[in-house]
Amino acid sequence: xxxxxxxxxxxxxxxxxxxxxxxxxxxxxTGNYRDxxxxxxxxxxxxxxVTADSPDRAAIQQKVRQQxxxxxxxxRRDDSLLKLQSYTTMRTALNGLAGHYSSYPNxxxxxxxxxxxxxxxxxxxxxxxxxx
Length: 132
Fold this sequence. Notes:
mainly alpha
């Protein structure tokens, strides 16, 4: 009887832990591709526009890095998105900004990279408006 009771309790514990971790949204992402993409685009624009001497720079950079990681991990395995122009362009922009943060975490974003990222984010928004 004691063995049976401990097995039931272990099963309940596993079920509770599994259900609570599956229900939590990742980094504030909703699961709606369009809304999540626009939220990350907005965060990336804020990170691009922040000045080097801004006191919020580190917090903004940390927030956008977390959102980019959450976005990439949520949508990376969704094969239906691979043919969307908005997704492929968004991945290019994510990789560009993440590469800069990985290589030069304490330096401001160069003007050339800002211009490229701004153009790519504009393309993402335009593709989402068109439905792709």
